[in-house]
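Escalation from tier 1.

The customer reports that the assembly of two entities below gives different structure tokens on two consecutive runs. Tier 1 could not reproduce it. I'm attaching the input and our single run for tier 2 to review.
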Amino acid sequence: MTSQHLSLFSRRNALKAASSGFGYLAFAAIADEQARAAARGPLAPKDPHFPARAKRVIFLSMRGAPSHVDTFDYKPQLTKDHGKAGKYGGTRGAMLLKSPWEFNQHGKSGLWISELFPGLAKHADDLCLLRSMQTDQPNHPQATLQMHTGSFQFVRPSLGSWSLYGLGTENSNLPGFVTLNPFGSAQNYGSSFLPAIYQGSKISAAARRPFGNRGRRGGDDSLKIPNIKSEHLNPEQQRIYLDYVQSLNKNTLDKNVHQPGVEGIIESYELAFRMQDSLPEQVDLSGESQETLDLYGIGKTNTDAFGKQCLLARRFVESGVRFVEITHSSGWDHHRNLKNDMEKNCAEIDRPVAGLLADLKRRDMLKDTLVIWAGEFGRTPHGQGGDGRDHNNKGYTTWMAGGGVKGGFSYGATDEHGYEAVENKMHIHDWHATIFHLLGLDHQKLTYNYAGRDFRLTDVHGYVAKEILS
Amino acid sequence: MRLSVFSISVFSISLLHAQDAPLTQEQLAFFESKIRPVLADACYECHSNEGGRVKGGLALDTREALFLGGDSGDAVVPGHPDDSLLWAAISYTDPDYEMPPKNRLDPAIVSDFKKWIEMGAPDPRVTEKIIVKSEIDIEKGREFWSFQKPKNPPVPEVEKPDWANNVIDYYILAKLEEKSMAPAVDASPETLVRRLYFDLIGLPPTPEQQVQFQKSWAENPHSALQSEVEKLLASPGYGERWGRHWLDVARYAESTGKETNMTYPHAWRYRDYVIDSFNEDKPYDRFIAEQIAGDLLPARDDVTWQENLIATGFLAMGTKGLNQESGHQFRMDVVDEQIDTMTQAILGLTVSCARCHDHKFDPVPTTDYYALAGIFLSSETFFGTVPNAQNKRSSDLLLLPVPDPFGEPMAEREIAALEERRASMRREMIELRQMRDSLTGNAAGDALQKALRMRNQQQIINAKLQGVDENGMPKTFAMGVQDGASPTDTNVLLRGEIDKPAQKVSRGFVQVLYHDEMPEIKSGSSGRRELAEWITSKENALTARVMANRVWLNLFGRGIVNSPDNFGTTGQAPTHPELLDYLAVRFMENGWSVKSLIREIVLSRTYRMSSDFNSKYYTMDPDNNYLWRANQRRLDAEAIRDTILAASGTLDRSRPRGSLIAEIGDARVGIRLNERDIDKPSEHRSVYLPVVRDALPEALALFDFAEPDVVRGSRESTNVPSQALYMMNNSFVTQQAKAMAEDLIAKYDSPRERIGAAFRRAYGRMPTSDEVESTMNFFREFFPASVASSDRAAAVRLTMATFCQGLFSSAEFRYLY
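Tier 1 run:
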């Protein structure tokens, strides 16, 4: 490479910029954000748009839509009107169904939380309940997609990809967006039109029965990371092999100036090589103390699987990963067997989640780690078959903790029975805008130019609920 | 010739009946006193939009919804109680439709309903009559470049005509000269032949082919190139390569995707049809017509007819939301998917943006959308899948006229056993049903679950039994479309909502593309045939342009219009509009021959350019819009995998019969069928790997395969760590490296010969002396590190295998220059 070529772009930047394999520099003029990413390399840590408390996200995804009126949305009127016809339609013979569980006030804040979450209730003063959630579709896949990408119709980048695009990541030995044990479409963690480097790295984790009752034969507790280990070369051999590959690549690079693809390949091998060590180490829990394992409920039959995921999430964010999503996939779709299955599911997550909050707190990480708990929608106050609840996208509850949200706080409200959000409605777009705000990102400014249009996570929507900021 | 459709049930399309005459006092009183109260008391609970429950897709709380009917058909046919499912249901005449299910209505009420239907079902529940008006000025819209017919433009003057091989070069050179740029020098013959092979057949030239080509090149470059091109266009590999490009556009897949994700075991016939069509250079207009209306085209024999039917699979293999409760909604969604795919794939237009309102950017009014929707609603889509609790929307398949030559008969015993199992299940189901009412709580729930499971199993047995004739010979099926029973125009839907019908619109096409009068759609036909004629008409400004651009994109890595699926106002402007017109006109003049178009392009001087960098030009035109050099292109997933197989000598170039998914049959992906079952080892070309939505084989998914959810005219090319890990550690890669090493060891004696042969296979060139040296160094380093842990011969093999793996892993292997 001659000095004339060097003047075009610094080699180091070019190498970084090229890692997206997307001809980054070529697009640099398109949008501010793209230019920002291009200037410093797509994964380099970037300053947020404005100072913010949350530096990273742990997203606890509850597949199947947990009931809010049995967990975080206390509705005494529902109990009073139990057995009466609801005014909300519903299945034949379906009447309002009071929650089978007691609600009590917890913490200094006196937040109402059901007895299903005794462990989590101890963290009431850290929780910010969002009790007026709304989403567009009452169907699982569409609503799940919308929760992740803002759109239930189109292929769009996921929340984690946008976050990584906006903020970069702190650890070059690990992917910046990790999703453990995801369920459903890969679109939920896909980067869509954002460069592929921002897509979530899927790590199939420890759930023993990934398909709930249907079961998959021979599930085990070990983490599956495809192709993470060489079966035929020892580390020394592999390094010799890689050095050879990289020498071939450098020959290729020297033949022509500006080969972002080749530079991307060189980078990808080095990160991959580091990931072989860092990733298994990252997911190896043997170094954690018994006390910590107990804190998360690891080793206890019903909390082991999710406890491990929660602990892994902490380990990933601790190592500098920007966005970690974990999925509780036993299924919260309680059309029937509400009484038994809710108790079972809540018990599976109560201790692990409480443990996660406690662990983050004692490591002084809760203050800048945003923990989000959400299902794709909620459930109806009227019953279904006497011991179940139907889908409800008109009003439900999610919560956040840490990362600059008000603890012991409740935002918005549903009607007297918990059917529809009536106060401070928070549509999923508003939820996204608020999450971005907590991360220091302006949801209107974080755009990507694709097919001639500037796209953003919130499309043309999004209201930041500033009331929940601490 | 009559088409037999494999049919258990045929669903009919319920359309809104106009009922505009004012009601008499008597009619009004009758409805208000006898009908409305009963509907409200006995029906709304399960059948009302307002109440939120629309069981069986039927709502009765508005006049529109009532006349729309439900999934099973027309609820009310005015004047004809016997054709009205509502009356059948409440009179308990059909055991499948007894409504209300628990409290049978009083006979007097039932007879009131009969009387009411006989009166013409007068219904005063008038909602405001909706007329959807368009604000779009079509005439003005036609001024946009892509909506104007391509004209044969004058060949531009250039300063250096000697550079040009053919007309294409004049357009390219003129633009470069205008920008004060000059084309790059010619690529070396070895670079060029590698490029040509990958572009035309998706495989590298063998070492013998390389040597042969270089020899001919030395004698006469142009004729060497010419004869190589002819050879490649005649190779079956051509259809496998270019057919795959079309399969990206056609969002070809072997499962429904979305929430339920059931397999399409018969989809592969469409795949083979596409490959064959490219190989025989079927005129593109014919190719398109077959995919839209193959079932309606005349066919001289059963084989042609069969091919035409399979072609319509294009319209049937989109994603499907099988758990959709409402049959109407499902049909509208299927039609929307068809419109979306067809208009993007063929016209480069996003017409489905006009489903809910006028297109926001292009001159496509929402009425145009419903004009097209009427055509597809007048057709039926057959895609198969087995019904189950999560699949409420399965359909029949098309039974093909030619029996499967490879089909294996099902033994009589097996048929009997299946029938016996089905019968015993039926008995058990009846017992369950009888028990059901006495059970409560979870026991009732469990019984329900069991019944559901048994119903699923029964459906699978049904499908198996229906797949063979009385002699156990397998029937052959395909996915596709047929005209419906009563083709008719449809209503515009306000905001796309099925219960908000507005005015009816005549079936037709996209107006902005139609300069003369719309051709009439013959009564009694869906209009698909007319649609096929119109869309392939030379009057249509887009069809030829869009395809010419796709061909260009696949040869240069970048389209003249770089948004190949969007030629609308939000698409990208053409870099060389005159060239695009020239190619489009040539394409049509040459009888829509794709091979001729490819031939002309690859024999241009432009195609021969090297990819050498030029810093001055880079500053002026970083995206290489004006083609001052060839683009460096990463090989696509199929080419990477196929080249590994070719280099190792294990590639099986034969076409496998069917597909792994055909062997597996009907199944739900993610439940009984997981990625491990789908990602099986294979040595066939990658185009034959199973393409299951959301469960693609790793070798494809990791290297930016076109996700088959929507039309994908171009692929991404990323270089991410997961690909590096694949090359480093995946067993397919290491197995193939091992096979290649063993082959090299068997064929060549000296390390240097082996290195030379390996470079030829992997890169299509001989190694430089530096490369030989660095490879020898690798041997010297790697061998001692390996011999410690195994015997000498094994260490030699591992060293050689790892060297081969190194070549597979390298950037040069993955790139075209």
